[in-house]
Design a protein that fits this description.
Length: about 290
């Protein structure tokens, strides 16, 4: 994969944020018959999604390749928003998936599936309550306030691949937050902020959910994904504003996530409108 940045001589400069060990992660996650074929840790890169997608397009990465960066200098979220954080303060990684046997029309469930996997893995490994904001944000509670601690970005990689990028704030302190609405696992009172078991927990949860979804042919109901996502989605039951492409917006109650992974909004006019893409603003608690 991408070569390590050997010029970085500050790997141990912050002992509160020790580096990840790629060899140990490979030993723990790569196994015969499992999803993961490789886990590579790099010290610094622009975007793990860009790097892994580039390798996939060239045929230099297989399904189950995982690329982890200790620091991203050009990390992106949805709508090309920037995602920046201090080195080793979080988990920043991408996974290449090739969901053969699943109709392309159902691939839109992959970011929601990843959200369920991340929330489940962190609940087990960090002991912190998390919630999902449709379609791809991970929320935690800090001082009674709902804050974003992570995000997911899914991008096509060639004809048969999807790269799933995940960013999670782990040890970010208040004075390091990029915006006041951001949070981290540490600020939310996580019982563990050791990134090694956190990453293993998230990746094992992703492997479990991805396998279940694939075996069901991508059917979100049969695999249990639709029900589980809805149960952990903080957006449902709230009054929201959906800011849509073309400077259009919809305001109403988020009432369901449909079989295509779209958020269904009931407007005051009595119309239920499915939203497949857009920015969702929570206007009022459920």
């Amino acid at each position: 994969m991408t070569p390590r940045d050997a010029s970085d001589d500050s790997r141990w400069s912050n002992l509160d944020r020790p580096p990840l060990n790629g060899a140990a992660l490979r030993r723990g996650l790569v196994r015969d018959g499992g999803l993961y074929c490789d886990v590579e840790v790099v010290q610094r890169t622009g975007s793990t999604n860009n790097d892994l997608a580039g390798l996939a397009v060239k045929g230099d990465a297989e399904e189950g390749a995982v690329l982890v960066a200790e620091e991203q200098t050009a990390g992106r979220g949805r709508l090309d928003r920037q995602w920046t954080a201090p080195a080793r303060s979080g988990l920043f990684f991408s996974v290449l998936l090739k969901p053969a046997g699943v109709p392309v029309a159902r691939w839109g469930w992959l970011p929601l599936l990843t959200g369920v996997a991340v929330a489940t893995g962190l609940s087990r490994a960090a002991g912190v309550d998390t919630a999902l904001k449709w379609p791809n944000d991970l929320l935690v509670t800090v001082g009674g306030e709902e804050r974003k601690a992570g995000g997911i970005l899914a991008e096509r990689a060639g004809e048969d691949g999807v790269v799933i990028g995940v960013g999670i704030n782990v040890t970010l302190r208040e004075d390091e937050l990029p915006v006041p609405t951001a949070g981290s696992l540490a600020l939310a009172g996580a019982v563990s902020t050791d990134r090694d078991p956190l990453l293993r927990g998230v990746l094992r949860s992703l492997e479990e959910w991805y396998g279940r979804w694939q075996r069901a042919g991508g059917d979100p109901a049969v695999s249990g994904l639709q029900e589980t996502y809805a149960a952990g989605c903080a957006t449902l039951g709230r009054v929201v504003r959906a800011e849509l492409p073309g400077d259009r917006s919809i305001t109403g109650e988020a009432v369901a996530v449909d079989g295509d992974g779209r958020l269904v909004i009931a407007t005051k006019e009595g119309v239920q409108e499915p939203v497949g893409a857009g920015d969702i603003v929570h206007l009022r608690p459920a």
